[in-house]
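Pasting as-is:
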Amino acid sequence: MPDLPPYLRPFVLPVEGAAELRVDRVGELDFHRPASTARTGAILLIHGGPGPADLSVTPRDWPVYQGYAAAIAQRGLVAVVVDHRLIRGLDQLSAAADDVEAAVGLLRADPQVDPERIVLWFFSGAGLLAGEWLDSRPGWLRGIALSYPRLATPPGVDELVSAAEVIGKASTTDLPVLLTRVGRELDELAGPVAEFVSAGGTALDIIDVPKGQHGFDMLDHTDESRAAVTKALDWAIAHLGEDPTATQLPIPTTTMTTEKVKTSVVVEKPAAAVAEKPAPVVPQKPAAPVSTPLLPAETPASRVVGREHSAYEAHDLEAFLAMYSPTAQLQTADGAVLRGRRSLREYYQPRFEAGQCKSELVHRMTQGDWVVDQSISHGDDGPTPTIAFYRVQEGLITEVRVLG
């Protein structure tokens, strides 16, 4: 790989069976199609620029974009890679914006694509093209993803709409936006990215790659890189209304000893125990028992869930959401599935604002990435026994399933 130019190095994710996928070339667009012919949402992959002077292969033939497209198509959606004129130089910025707009039109007109379910994914220099879409926010646009983006034009280059200036506007706060940022970003790009994050606030979902460099998805073949790319793919697919895993949230297999089961029953039904042994001093008013939650030894996963619980009890919505992965899934007791922090915010915000964040932990079990909590939630309907399964990966909650 050292002898290859960076843009020809392999994609960080292994994509099995990519050669078997159907790819249609339409003008400057490559349509990567899933095995199914069903109508589905689509993701437009928009490369950066400018490219090197000796560029011999256009971006739609680069392994990194072919890899992203194949990974998307294998999950059942249409992925499109567009060659646009920014690759020739920053003086082509306006022309590139026209190219992307034309590509969106062709994409939405494709018979296999649901024109109301589109995600635009901007890489590197293409971040300069994202501001207009953040500003206009068409109704069919389900999300915008930005990977290690350039967000400020150099001196002497005509500027389009600045992403940092529009990200915090009220008209854009209902548009899901994902930023993948790298810890070893180029100096000239890091500052504008920080300004964008500051302006975006809660309107942004962020995936951090602390050890990654600009172009990490082709340059840094590490577990950190693979995890970040997978999370970003999950986010984009979830915001098109699809299940990234295509399966129901799993429940871990757990083993409880007879002793634990008996103990938990005693805690769950303290009133019966008190009735059998009334307090000797004041028999007519038996003392209320003090039940202590049964907690196993702490694990990295249980510490994360514990911090989530603490934020919940403190009515700190932002701290609560920060414990969740940007692509987290939560299945409620009635079977509804929430995907992503934005959905979690919409679901929990009324509860936080109403001061209804009260839950009493009764019993906890842990197994690897999983934490299983038996608790009693207190709300308008009174005490409600619940069991919740939490999966924690890389320090964030990725899956939750609640049983009422």
